Structure formats: structure tokens, C-alpha cells
Amino acid sequence: MPNRLAHATSPYLLQHADNPVDWWPWEPAAFEEARRRNVPVFLSVGYSACHWCHVMAHESFEDELTAAYMNEHFVNIKVDREERPDVDAVYMEAVQATTGQGGWPMSVFMTAEGEPFYFGTYFPPEPRHGMASFTQVLEGVRTAWVGRREEVAEVAQKITRDLAGRALGAGGSALPTDDSQSSALLQLSRDYEPATGWFGGGDTKFPPSMVVEFLLRHHARTGSEGAREMAEGTCEAMVRSSLFDQVGGGFHRYVLRAKPHGPLVPHFEKMLYDNALLCRVYAHLWRSTGSELARRVALETADFMVRELRTREGGFASALDADSEDPLTGKHVEGAYYAWTPAQLREVLGEEDGDAAASCFGVTEEGTFEHGTSVLQLPQDGPTLDAAKVDDIKARLLAARSGRPAPGRDDKVVAAWNGLAIAALAECGAYFERPDLVERATEAADLLVRVHFDATAGPRLARTSKDGNVGPNAGVLEDYGDVAEGFLALASVTGEGVWLEFAGFLVDLVLDRFTAEDGSLYDTAHDAEKLIRRPQDPTDTAAPSGWTAAAGALLSYAAQSGSRAHRTAAERALGVVQALGPRVPRFIGHGLAVAEALMDGPREVAVLGHPEDPATAALHRTALLGTAPGAVVAVGLPRAADGGAAEFPLLADRALKDDLPTAYVCRHFVCARPTTEPAELAEQVAGARP
């Protein structure tokens, strides 16, 4: 019989609706039930594409005896971290502070007041590798709750007090400087492995999207060859490894080295945020260097997002699962959809092309993954095939792979991640003359306006939707920052001022509802549900922090609108980058990238002319291809057709030069000489490279 999760909108919660565990969603009634029964709360946090979440669910939450014990002695709450990043952030901070590590599934035991006292991540069904079994953990917590309640309460209150005392300031009034940015670059160079192209030691490698964006911007502003070399080396390492899906495009979540000196193998889930960020990074790498590899990867990633993540309503789904059904065994296993043997390649491609593909993509008889299978990669020392032949092989393998049981898809539309996708697709469409990608970006933006905006509830931006129905949870700071950034990118590409207006609406809400008196930013609005701590974190995780995403949107909106209030807010928020950048640059890469835009201006580019005029289009494209960090672009006529104000403040009261389409490049609304020539404009929007 389904439990209380049967009515959830989250695909992750719905996966647990038939568990024998009597799950509750995160709601006040669950905590009231814990008070009434005088039992602790067990909180389990995960997400639909999480491999170990599925493992623990199968081993423990689907087990009748384990579920019966949980139901008798606990109130059990299940949370989708993608729907409630605020709940996840608060308790993950406690887990990491107490245990020194974190991850998902996250397992937290707490009082009915939400005060945590015992933590963990995945617990096995029996003792293993020094880990207690989940049943032992449950019994131990139950024993402590019954026999040592005062001690439990003291621990819970101390942890809660410690968390509450961690509020961050803005990092001081000092803005990022050349010295602080250079110090961050130096620290990154110490973490960089030139031989491999990856950052940091250890066997697990995550894509450093925001760091690469900083490196590209720093190179454009200063001409640093070291920054460019690290950006290019990292991008090549990622795309040559099995992190990149060589057949279907797009990136997996991370790669790890399972055996000493062995190849990197991926954790196979595919997340929208990774692919949106990396799509944009590779597009910017192409813009900076002209790399054909970067162009191919950007487009293949964009096409993957549209083909496999786009929903019927025009938005983009959150993720593809790591696991899928193995046709030979009928079991759900990780990587079954993506792995190949040489025999399978020959079956699809024939003997000659199959052998060529195996050599090109590192598929061996002994296998580089599991059970004699390999995950395709592009070894540095592998044979090089003709580009047309590679394209043909990939197309045939993709067609064959589409006949395999596909990984599950989390159809939940997350506002923040769709904002990232909108920016990436709009820019790729403009750079590579793919108007279909701009159309997909516009459709996703339309969905966010139609479904996620609610002018009556505060107003507010909803965090999620599914099947065109808005979810129950309010947006957090990253939703406002990333969606505003997506709308600003779309405005620059399309010349449609309505997207600038929507971005302004969002950044005004950031000022009104998320900003502290000292200029620091909170992850939740001032009227959001009160947790044991109001979450506040400027550091990046897998995606830009809400803090620095909002700072970037505030800065870009200020450049487009001339608003001093929004620029001042951006500057105050960026004080934290000056404080953290030189010490932990890998964890504040997006803030460092925004700081590069601040230090460059950012430049404001006004292209005057009718958008359908080829000469205007040439200037517009040149402006978009400029590498000046964070430059904003407005295109259109200085006045509306009815004589009213221009759609973009940057266009107002400017004159055409010799009655020809004209471009102005400005900083803080102080402009260089207007030009009608794309070549001259290209010089004005280029970075400071020697």
C-alpha cells in the first residue's frame, strides 16, 4: 500500500512511495507526530539519480523487518535535496562538521525540534569495512534516546548552537584586486596536474566548470598564458576521458580511478547543471581560442540536453539515472547503457569499423570497466580516425544504443538549472549560428515565466515544476541568480527587452528578500520556512553558489540598466571573493569569474540598428563573440517604433553614425568612439591578450 509520498511531485519521493517504510514528506505534521509519540526523527535525503541512494533503498527501505523497526521507533522523513536544497544544506553542514565528510544518501537523526544529534550517509544492511549496519545504527539511536535522553538533548543543542553561530559576513568591504586574483591563480596552479590535466590529488575527479570559466576570463583580461594553458588542458582532459559520453554527447557526474594506475571510469548519472555549465565553458573556450574540439563538444552537449533532457513543456529535466537495466541479467546496474565490448562494437559496425572503433575509443578485450566491458574514451596515444568516419561510427552506435533500456529520467524542472541551460543554449545558438538552440532556450524561459513565477505569493519564484505543474517549494537564492543570468544572456542574444525586465524583477527580489544589512546574501528568503539555521554559503558545489550567482546577475543587470543600487549590491557581495579566492579558489570559481567581469567593467555594448539588417546582425554577432569578461550586449533601435523608450537603457539617446548600424562600447556608461565596422568593434570587445 502506498505511503504518504504517493502524492508527491518529486520523482525521487515517488520512487519511495511503495516502500514499507511509513515515510513522511518534510512538513510540520511530521515533527508534530514525533512530539506526540515522543520518538526521534530519521531524515533521509537523496535524489533520483543517486546510485547509493538506490542501493540503500533496496537493501534497507524495501526490507520489511527494517521498515517495521523504523516505523515503530521513529518518524521517518524523506527529502529530495533538489527540491529542498535549504534543508539539505543545513543538515549537510552538520554532517560534514561532525564527521568530516558528507554525501548522499544523507542520514540524520534529530529531535522533534529539528535539532540533529547523530549523522551518517550510506549505511550497509550488515556490518562492512568497519561500518555499522543500518539496523545497528537504528538500535543504537533508539537505545540512546530511551536511556540517555539528557545526553542526546545536550548533543543536539550544542550542534544547533554551533551551526547557528556560523553566519558569514560579506568578507569585508575590500573588493577583489589584481593581487587577490593573481593569488587565486597561483593557488590553482599548485593544485593543477599538467601531466593529467586535472586539478587536485586523489582518485575522484569532478568537472571544475566554474574554475575553467575563471581561467578563461582571467586570460582574456590579463593575457595570462598560464591561465589559458590550465583551461585548455583541463577541457581536453575532460573530453578525452570517459567523463564525456563519446557516443551521445554530454558529461557524466564524475570519474574515478577504481584500480591503481587504471583508467578513469565514470559515475554515470548525467546532471543538467553539469551539462549546462560545461556546454557554456566549451563554447567560451572556442570563442577564446577557435578550438574545433571545443566547438564540437559544446554543440554535442547542447544537442544532448535538447534530445534527452528536454520535457514536453519546453523545460529541461534534472537528471538521467546512473543505473539502467542490463538486458542479459534483467538487473539494474550502473553503466549498463554506456558500456561496450569489442564484440558488441563489431556486431553494430562490422568487423573493420568495429575494430577501428575499439582502437579509437579504448575498448579492450579485458575491459576497462566491469565484467569485460569498457566505457568509451579518447586516449591521447590512440589512433586518429578521419573525422567523417568518427561521426559515422558515433551515429551508428548512438542508434544501436537507443535500443537498450534507457536510464530513468528525473523529469522535475529545477528553476536554477534551467537558468544555466538557457544561458548555455542561447549563447551556443548565437556563436554557432544554430537558431534552433536559441528557440529551445526561449521556450525554457517561457516555461519558467508561465509556471514558476507567481506574482500573488509574495511574489516569488517556485523552485520546481513537473509536467507543467508548479511544485510546492519556494525558490532559493540560486534560483533567482541563475534564472536572472539565463534571462540576461537571452536578452543579449535575442534583443528582446522583455527578458531584461524579467531579470530586473528577479534581482530586485534578491535585494529585497535575500540580502543582509552588511551586503552578504542568504540562501533563503527572509520569509522562508525557519530551519535551525538560515543557510548561507558563498562557496560553489557542483554548480555556482546562490551568493555568487546572484552577485553576477546583479552586476550584469547593473551594466545593462545603469542602476547604481544593483552594482553596489554586487560589489558588497563580492567582498567574500577577495577573502576566500586566494585561499580556496577551487571552491569559489564562479565568484572569481564574476570578479573578473567587475574588474573589466564589465563592458557595455550597444548595437544600434534594425535587428533584421545584415549590417546590424554582423555587429551584433561580433559583440557576442567578444572575450571581454562578462560583457553585456544590447541590440535594437534607440527608440521604439511608437516613439517610446528603447527596450534597453543602453540604446537610449544614442545616434547612428552616418545613418549606418553603429556600435558603442562603454564602461560605466563612458564610451569609446562609436563604430560601424565589425573589425574595429572586435578590437574594442577583445580582452587584453598581447
Structure description:
The chain has 690 residues and is of the alpha+beta class. Among the domains are: 4-164, Glutaredoxin (3-Layer(aba) Sandwich), CATH 3.40.30; 338-401, no CATH class; 601-690, Glutaredoxin (3-Layer(aba) Sandwich), CATH 3.40.30. It is built from 25 helices and 26 strands. The strands form nine sheets. A five-stranded mixed β-sheet has the order 1-3-2-4-5, with helices on both faces. Helix 11 packs parallel to helix 16 (415-431), helix 17 crosses helix 18 and helix 20 packs antiparallel against helix 21 (564-573). The chain is globular, with a radius of gyration of 26 Å. 54% of the residues are buried. The model has no long low-confidence stretch (mean pLDDT 92).
Low-confidence stretches: none
Count the helices. How many?
Answer: 25
Q: Could you report the average pLDDT, rounded to the nearest whole number?
A: 92
Helix amount, in percent? 40-55%
For the sheet with most strands, the description reads: 5 strands, mixed
Given the C-alpha coordinates, what overall shape results? globular
* CATH secondary-structure class of the domain at 4-164: Alpha Beta
CATH fold field value of the domain at 4-164: Glutaredoxin
So, CATH architecture of the domain at 4-164? Answer: 3-Layer(aba) Sandwich
Distance between the termini: 69 Å
- Helix-strand category: alpha+beta
Radius of gyration: 26 Å
Q: What is the CATH homologous superfamily assignment of the domain at 4-164?
A: Glutaredoxin
